[in-house]
Amino acid sequence: MLVVCGAGGFIGGYLVKSLIALGERVRAIDIKPLSDWYQLSDEADNVQADLRLRESCHEVLSQASAVYNLACDMGGIGFIENNKAECMLNVLINTHLLMAAKDHRVSKYFFASSACVYAASKQDSTKGTALCEKDAYPAMPEDGYGWEKLFGERMCRHFSEDFGIATRVGRFHNVYGPYGAYDGGREKAPAAICRKVIEAKFSGREYLDIWGDGNQTRSFTYIDDCIKGIELLMKSDVAEPLNVGSSEAVTINELVDLVEAIAGTQLERRYQPSAPLGVAGRNSDNSMIRRHLGWEPSIRLREGLEKTYSWIYQEMSNALGQTAHEGNEKTSNQNPTIPIRSSK
Ligand code: NAD
């Protein structure tokens, strides 16, 4: 039995589906009620549990042969900069899962780490330095969230050395795609920009707010590449953390250009210098993953954004239709408001 933790979230939902498609038996866990999971696979054993608790971890890992830990209280830069303690508390999830994995003699354990483990000093230029795995040390990761991920990586390493659990660590770089958060404060840049452009289209607004000056550089990894990376990494014998990220770096302004081109619109850009920014520039150096797995993420940003934009557009249109319909039923003169999120 494979256990996917954080299965009600974005990446976890896709992972459960892909493992089931491979014919695996899957137990899917999340703290959220099942009705709030982004994707729900009926074929899985779906369980609501708080994995910060030691007893929950012990219970859900009974009969587990492998564990995928993607459970985490996190979000985009706005969330992680303003909720550092909350992010650090994710340490409880990984710690209790590893302890339960040891007790249940689980043979393989995957930990979803992040590019936020990389040292700040390597990311102070908007040139977007490609970060290779050794650049996490000397350590000075993103405060809160990044420190917890780096500590989580070390926990995996030492549980592997001391207790023989084969741990695998993927350092994800900005994963995006349909079925991810696009509003509510936990969304990342690609989904946030798509939402803002769609809101502008629906409302007739002619401008777009951009956090910072738009010159920050990032790379964005389409969800299918992320899932493939997890699958290959789990099959491999690579015990060291590996980047799972696209190496197609763009500035936030270029990201906006792409979304505008997909939407067939152009908006005035209003820059917000005091908004949360994160590091100046970051890209993924894929030499290690190519060498070890003979593969690297390759889905072009334009292609992934088209799918993401069209899913968010559909969700927002559905919600707008629903709001308009409800509005018409109540008072026929009310203007429909911009939707928050339709039910999934
Ligand atoms: P997500 O927020 O969509 O999913 C995480 C899930 O974990 C959520 O559904 C949440 O309810 C669940 N969770 C939180 N606390 C829990 C608890 N105590 N018990 C059980 N479940 C709990 O995030 P995601 O984008 O799917 O990310 C998955 C993993 O990948 C996370 O560890 C994240 O840090 C890592 N990661 C993601 C990205 C990205 O760009 N999406 C980048 C780097 C790393």
How many helices? 11
- The total domain count is 2
The CATH C-level name of the largest domain is Alpha Beta
Tell me the β content. Answer: 15-25%
Helix content: 40-55%
Overall shape: it is globular
Question: Quick one: CATH superfamily of the largest domain?
Answer: NAD(P)-binding Rossmann-like Domain
Q: Assign the CATH topology of the largest domain.
A: Rossmann fold
Which segments are poorly predicted (pLDDT under 50) over 5 or more consecutive residues?
A: 329-344
Entry keywords:
single chain; 344 residues; alpha/beta; Rossmann fold; UDP-galactose 4-epimerase, domain 1; 7-stranded parallel β-sheet; two-stranded parallel sheet; 11 helices; 40% helix; globular; disordered C terminus; binds nicotinamide-adenine-dinucleotide
Summarize the structure.
The protein is an alpha/beta fold. It is built from eleven helices and 15 strands.
Give an account of the 3D structure.
The protein has 344 residues and is of the alpha/beta class. It folds into two domains: 2-177 and 221-244, Rossmann fold (3-Layer(aba) Sandwich), CATH 3.40.50.720; 189-218 and 250-283 and 300-332, Alpha-Beta Complex (UDP-galactose 4-epimerase, domain 1), CATH 3.90.25.10. The chain has helices spanning 10-21, 54-60, 77-82, 84-88, 91-103, 145-163, 189-203, 223-235, 252-263, 287-293, 301-330, and strands at 2-5, 26-30, 45-48, 66-69, 108-114, 130-131, 166-172, 175-176, 207-211, 217-219, 221-222, 242-244, 249-251, 268-272, 283-284. The strands form five sheets. A seven-stranded parallel beta sheet has the order 3-2-1-4-5-7-12, with helices on both faces. A two-stranded parallel ribbon has the order 6-15. A two-stranded parallel ribbon has the order 8-11. Helix 2 (54-60) crosses helix 5 and helix 5 (91-103) packs parallel to helix 6. The chain starts with a strand and ends in a 14-residue tail after the last helix. 44% of the residues are buried. The structure holds nicotinamide-adenine-dinucleotide. Residues 6, 8-12, 29-32, 50-52, 70-74, 93, 112, 114, 172, 174-175, 188 line the site of nicotinamide-adenine-dinucleotide.
